[in-house]
């Protein structure tokens, strides 16, 4: 929003935000004044009311951020209650594109895309999936990379001292903690790394994912601590349970010698944390999930096998023992990251919005049956019920 604001002034044009709440309490979060409407995630009527609110407030273009788990109903079907009532064009940004969606997920995403003025994804792989799996026409798809802050280069030694990090080599992973992040692999690689580089510290920065925390507390973080203790590397592991804002995150990325993303699943179409690391000019070592294979090509990073701690330790030891190669990775990442800076990405979005605000209203699609079926809690969902 701030990036687009540089090209289409947000408040000057009367723009506003519609927020999604993960509870029925509309006052649960202290939103800023730019949030003019709040939707409770599992209230279908709120989505319909939001559409009416948008239609009646002089909106030229609606930008929808789509991710699974944000919208209510099975597979987020309640979002259709908003889009089918909109009388203004909308652009939808798909943060995840599944290679093997179930029939309901496929149907919902196709309907969202069919009515959209434009569909935005962040990787070439996502473009290919939209064409081949979801049968979305190429002229509707726009690829815009994940943006990163306008980072400045910082003095590594000074930043380490300011953050209170110990002297020595720093490995870093950041983001919300959960079993899908593959942190066990990184911890299992530490004994072999510390044997050659005893001054290594592995920093895991981030709070536990709210959904994990709500259902399981800090059990996952505790299990990682127990694994480190079992392997005898507990003194080389630092947990920082914070949600850090961009400036402090930039400091950690500048302070680290190597940034690690050990995700265990190939089907990770976009990773904001990976984009931020590249944008800050970090030396990245990652598993070859889809986004990493694109972003780290041309010697902008190194890849290791899924769940392969031996491969990871081998690459990290090689890089820590070869400072010139480490500097080369950082230099290549930083140079490429200049093209991902938010001012440039924001300009692409502003141009896209301007190009489609005059889009003619499309005829309504037959989605009512889909809405009725998926909002019913007592009826079994079947693919047959969605055929039109």
TrEMBL record:
Question: Looking at the record's lineage, which domain of life comes first?
Answer: Bacteria
Q: Which residues form the Glycosyl transferase family domain?
A: 167-335
SUPFAM superfamilies for this protein: UDP-Glycosyltransferase/glycogen phosphorylase (SSF53756)
Pfam entry (one): Glycos_transf_1
User: Which InterPro entries does the record associate with it?
Assistant: Glyco_trans_1 (IPR001296)
What is the protein's name according to its record?
Glycosyl transferase family 1 domain-containing protein
